[in-house]
Write a structure and sequence with these properties.
The protein has three helices and five strands; from the N terminus they run ααβββαββ. It is of the alpha+beta class. The longest helix has 33 residues. The structure holds copper (II) ion. This is RND transporter.
Amino acid sequence: MKAFSITLQAAALAAACLAGAPAMAQHAGAEHAQHGAAAASAETTEGEVKKVDKASGKLTIKHGELKNLGMGAMTMVFRAKDTAMLDQVKAGDKIRFTAENVNGALTVTTLEVVQ
Ligand SMILES: [Cu+2]
């Protein structure tokens, strides 16, 4: 009976590890994208600027799907890679941008206002 319950625990542990695997794979992918060669392959995504916070170097974007981050459409805060980006946009602007996971911070790495 004791051996049986230990086997169950081992199985539960294995299941937990498997459940964690896709998230780890995603992180590896995002980190890989930071290496120069793969960075260019990050697709641009359409978004709408909701808020620009120059003091904290962040901007809120209502964005479409971000395949490279495994993210669906949502409104969220991103860090700006370059604070100069924050001078290029204002709330209400339609943009095309690329976002990457830079050291754990979701960061807008390129940004272009759509006319
Ligand atoms: Cu998002």
